[in-house]
Design a protein that fits this description.
By secondary structure, this protein is α+β, with helices and mostly antiparallel strands. It has helices spanning 3-27, 37-76, 83-89, 95-117, 134-147, 152-165, 167-211, 216-236, 266-275, 277-281, 297-305, 310-367, 370-379, 432-444, 470-477, 487-498, 522-529, and strands spanning 410-413, 416-426, 452-454, 460-463, 514-516, 534-544, 554-557.
């Protein structure tokens, strides 16, 4: 047993003995009672178990919190959250802890990014563009050097060349390299924080969408069903609602707020109390007899005693009881509606925030040397299928920065020299071998199947087969591979296609219909599968070292 475990159990045992003794003293009015060995053991065992259960519960809770945070951090690290990661961070087990971890991460990262930029940010959500500062000056300096061909990679190559020719110059060059690397390291640290913040935003968006997996209509139907009996009794007893529109202090009236042939509806009551929440608090106590204002429950009880007519008294009591029930239901319903509206607003904020993050991340990447980007992507767990540019023997670079970097090697034969240059080009996943790779990986991940093709807009289209329904199509393409349906994806699939194909009954779809799969376009699949955006090509150039007037250079792709 570890020493700290032994200390813990010693403390538990001491506490148990002390508690047992105090109980025995108290039980005899201050006189010490010496329990039997069996009594003492029973009491001590009970105290030990209670303390052990308390410590175990605390440890389990801390472990669950840590596990939820690890899941969030893992999903958010590379800035994009795939289907499998979404299911992990929206699982009902530990969901509250996962949400808490996201909020803590966002606050920490936004604060750190602000500090690195040296300015307060412009977005209300805590992140945005800043005015010119040390960060902007650093990015501009690195981009200018890169444009002039004096980036970190070219400096490294130059230093290696100078090692044998001019060691003192090589040493000076390496001092410059160290200073340049320090500048790039600052940009890398900030870029990682931006990427992680972007990922946490995506996790939060997934959690909001998970909370909103049921439609507004379904939420209304749920609460309306709960309120049905109370609404019936409320109307039968001539329930009262304030019909004024002058702020929170409404005037309570009898039935004149509605026409005689129209009963109050759950939607009308909910909308009124959503607009004026304070009136909901007085709803039940305002169900007295006559044109009166809201009362406390005690005042209402006294008021009812003054109603002489038995029928009116019974009505007042009945509508008061019904309104009391409706009060709680409407309060819960409007709280959920407010949360859903806040979620929609937050999703818009996340979209705007991540668009700005994408721009800043792209700008940072443009300033970095290819070898630095390579290492950063590798550490972030992103797919890297190109050689490390810092290795001069490889001469192959990439990284999705959109910048071509050329590396030359020469060999002379008589008057001709041959140089090999590498260039970075974008990968087109809509055709050729790249398309086959994307399709194969997407099928393996359960995101599409053999009945899916792509239209001219790059959208994935599923051709309906015999026996298919929305539920079955969603199961085949939601990425879960049959281990439980992604309800949010199912809802999106239905919403995307019902209106587009003019489907009147979601249970009746026709063989051969072409369903657009939401979130399965080329761009979506590239992100979900974390596929590289660029590759490298080698180009050889043959140069004639003849005097002017000789034949020109010839280039050929390799």
């Amino acid at each position: 047993m570890h020493s700290h475990h032994a200390d813990m159990f010693d403390a538990i045992e001491f506490g148990a003995r002390f508690e047992v003794r105090m109980k025995n003293v108290g039980a005899t009015g201050g006189k010490t009672h010496t329990p039997t060995a069996a009594e003492l053991k029973k009491q001590q065992d009970a105290a030990n178990k209670a303390e052990y259960d308390r410590l175990k519960s605390k440890a389990d809770s801390e472990k669950a919190n840590a596990t939820s945070k690890q899941k969030v951090d893992s999903a958010a690290k590379d800035g994009h959250v795939n289907i499998k990661e979404k299911n992990t961070v929206t699982n009902s087990s530990g969901l509250d802890d996962a949400k808490k971890a996201v909020k803590e991460n966002q606050e920490r990262l936004k604060k750190s990014i602000k500090e690195s930029k040296g300015e307060s940010t412009s977005y209300a959500t805590g992140y945005g563009s800043t005015s010119v500062n040390d960060h902007d000056a650093r990015i501009k300096k690195l981009k200018d050097a890169k444009a002039k061909g004096v980036d970190l990679d070219s400096m490294e190559r130059r230093a290696k060349e100078l090692d044998s020719k001019d060691p003192s110059a090589a040493k000076a060059m390496r001092e410059q390299i160290a200073a340049r690397k320090a500048e790039e390291d600052k940009v890398v640290a900030e870029t990682k924080q931006m990427t992680e913040l972007r990922g946490n935003n995506e996790v939060e968006a997934a959690q909001i969408e998970n909370d909103r997996s049921t439609s507004d209509a379904e939420v209304t139907a749920k609460y309306k069903s709960r309120a049905a009996d109370a609404m019936r009794r409320f109307n039968e007893a001539n329930g009262k609602v304030d019909n004024s529109d002058n702020g929170e202090d409404g005037i309570w009236r009898d039935d004149d707020w509605k026409t005689p042939d129209k009963d109050a509806t759950f939607e009308e009551l909910s909308d009124r109390f959503k607009k004026y929440p304070k009136r909901l608090e007085e709803f039940a106590s305002g169900q007295g007899n006559g044109d009166i204002g809201g009362m406390t429950d005690e005042e209402f009880a006294n008021h009812v005693k003054t109603i002489r007519d038995d029928g009116e008294r019974a009505n007042a009591i009945a509508r008061h009881q019904a309104a009391k029930e409706l009060q709680g239901i409407i309060k819960d319903y409007n709280a959920e509606r407010n949360a859903r509206e806040a979620g929609s607003k937050r999703l818009d904020e996340i979209k705007t925030e991540n668009e700005q993050l994408d721009k800043d991340i792209a700008s940072n990447r443009e300033a970095l040397s290819e070898s630095t980007k390579y290492q950063m992507d590798k550490e972030n767990g992103q797919t890297v299928d190109y050689s490390d540019p810092s290795d001069s023997s490889s001469g192959s670079v990439s990284g999705g920065g959109g910048t071509s970097t050329n590396t030359e090697t020469s060999s002379k034969s008589n008057d001709t020299s041959t140089s090999t240059t590498t260039k970075t080009v974008a990968i087109d996943y809509s055709k050729g071998a790249a398309h086959k790779t994307l399709v194969a990986k997407a099928r393996k991940a359960g995101l599409i199947d053999e009945h899916v093709s792509f239209n001219k807009d790059g959208q994935a289209v599923y051709k309906v087969q015999r026996g298919d329904g929305f539920w079955r199509i969603a199961q085949r393409t939601d990425g879960n591979k049959g281990s439980g349906l992604d309800g949010n994806y199912f809802q999106k699939l239905v919403a995307t296609n019902v209106k587009r194909l003019n489907i009147r009954d979601a249970n009746q779809i026709e063989i051969g219909q072409k369903m657009v799969l939401p979130g399965r376009s080329y761009d979506d699949l590239i992100k979900l599968l974390k596929l590289p955006l660029t590759r490298t090509e080698k180009v050889e150039s043959e140069k004639n070292d003849q005097p002017a007037g000789g034949s020109g250079a010839r280039r050929k792709a390799v």
